[in-house]
Specification:
Blueprint lengths: L1 E5 L2 E5 L3 H14 L10 E2 L3 E6 L4 E5 L1 H11 L31 H14 L5 H8 L7 H16 L5 E4 L5 H8 L14 E6 L7 E8 L2 E9 L7 H25 L8 E5 L2 H6 L13 H12 L3 E5 L16 H8 L4
Parallel strand pairs: 7-10, 10-11
Antiparallel strand pairs: 1-2, 3-4, 4-5, 5-6, 7-8, 8-9
Length: about 325
C-alpha cells in the first residue's frame, strides 16, 4: 500500500482492499477521518478517472479551466487554436510610465497551475509570460488571454496513462529517427530533450514518458547563454537526465518495473556523440562537469542518448512558438 499525504488529504494506492480497510480503521481510531471512496478529485480541482477494465487513468482540469474562462471571459478563438504565436517573442518589459495590469499576476499564476498539473501544451507560453510578472501591461495581459481562449476550446484534453501502451508514440519516434523498435518496451521510461539557440539564455525543455503518457515536463530558460547549439542541447539533456533518473527511482519504489537504460531523445547529433566517452570534448571544456555526468550515467547503463530528427522532437513544443500544423502534431503525443 502507498499513502500520499498533502496537508489534510490522504490518497491510497493498493492492490489489497482488505489491507486498505485495515489502515483506514487504524487512522480513524486516532483521527477524525472521512473515507471518500475511489479517487476522483485531488486538490479540489484535478479530475481523476480510473477505468480498471480498460487499464487507464486520466487526469483533467476541465472544470478548473471552465471556471477560469468564466472569470476572464476571453475573446473566442478562431481557426486551429494555438496558445501563442511568434508575436509573443516581441514582448518587452513594460516601462515605468506604463500601467501594470492588476490581474496579470493572478492570471499567470492560474495558468501556471494548469501547465504544471495537466497541460504541458501551454508550458512554453506560460513560462515565457511569467518573466514579465512584475511589469505585465495590458499588452501582456491580452497575450495571456489568448492562452485562456485556447484552453476554452480544448478543455476536454487530458493526460491518459495506460496499462498497455498503444504504440503510437513509439511508432512516431521510430519513423522520425534511426532507432530500432527494440529500444522500447511497455516498461520503458524515456525523455525528449530540446533547447533553442540564439539570444540571451534561450528556452529549453524536456518531457518524460511512462505508461504511454507524459509523467513530468518542464519548459524553462537555460541557466546561462550557450556558446553553441551543442552546448545548449547538452545542458538541456543533462537536466532531463537528472529528472529521468530521479523519476525512475520513484517509479521503481512503487513496485513497478522500469527497463534500463532509459533513452533520452535529442535532435542534436553533436550532443548525442558527446555523451560517448570515445568522443573528444576539448572544445567544450567549460561544461566538462556536465559532460562527465552524462557519460557516467551512460556507462552505468542508467540513461542513453539517441538522435531523433527535428520534426520528431516532441520537446520542441516547450522551446518556441510553433505553427498550428506542427503544434497539433506534437500535442497529439502529449494529450
Amino acid at each position: 500500500l502507498l499513502l500520499v499525504i498533502y496537508v489534510d488529504d490522504l490518497v491510497f494506492a493498493t492492490n489489497s482492499p482488505d489491507y486498505r480497510a485495515e489502515i483506514v480503521a487504524r487512522i480513524s481510531a486516532a483521527f477524525k477521518l472521512k473515507d471518500a471512496g475511489q479517487l476522483t478529485w485531488m486538490f479540489g480541482m484535478v479530475g481523476i478517472k480510473q477505468d480498471l477494465h480498460a487499464g487507464t487513468v486520466t487526469l483533467s482540469q476541465k472544470f478548473y479551466i471552465e471556471d477560469l474562462v468564466r472569470q476572464f471571459d476571453p475573446p473566442v478563438s478562431k481557426g486551429r487554436s494555438i496558445p501563442c504565436t511568434h508575436e509573443i517573442l516581441e514582448l518587452q518589459k513594460g516601462t515605468d510610465d506604463e500601467m501594470v495590469h492588476p490581474q496579470y499576476r493572478t492570471l499567470i499564476g492560474k495558468l501556471m497551475w494548469i501547465a504544471i498539473i495537466s497541460r504541458p501544451d501551454i508550458a512554453f507560453a506560460v513560462t515565457f509570460l511569467a518573466r514579465f510578472n512584475s511589469h505585465g501591461t495590458e499588452k501582456h495581459f491580452k497575450t495571456a488571454l489568448r492562452i485562456v481562449s485556447y484552453l476554452a476550446v480544448t478543455s476536454e484534453k487530458c493526460i491518459c496513462y495506460r496499462r498497455e501502451p498503444l504504440g503510437n508514440l513509439t511508432d512516431f519516434i521510430i519513423s522520425h529517427s534511426e532507432i530500432g523498435s527494440n529500444i522500447f518496451s511497455k516498461d520503458s521510461m524515456f525523455g525528449f530533450s530540446d533547447a533553442s539557440h540564439g539570444g540571451e539564455r534561450p528556452m529549453a525543455g524536456h518531457v518524460i514518458y511512462f505508461a504511454d503518457a507524459p509523467l513530468s515536463w518542464q519548459g524553462y530558460r537555460l541557466s546561462c547563454t550557450p556558446l553553441s547549439s551543442c552546448q545548449g542541447e547538452y545542458m538541456a539533456a543533462t537536466k532531463c537526465a537528472i529528472s529521468l533518473v530521479a523519476l525512475s527511482g520513484t517509479v521503481k519504489f512503487t513496485g513497478l518495473k522500469v527497463s534500463s537504460p532509459c533513452p533520452i531523445l535529442c535532435d542534436n547529433k553533436s550532443a548525442v556523440m558527446l555523451s560517448d566517452s570515445d568522443t573528444s570534448s576539448k572544445r567544450l571544456r567549460h561544461i566538462a562537469s556536465r559532460i562527465a555526468f552524462l557519460r557516467e550515467l551512460r556507462e552505468a547503463e542508467e540513461i542513453n542518448l539517441f538522435h531523433v530528427y527535428t520534426n520528431g522532437q516532441v520537446a520542441d513544443i516547450f522551446t518556441k512558438p510553433l505553427d498550428a500544423n506542427v503544434f497539433h502534431t506534437l500535442r497529439a503525443h502529449l494529450l
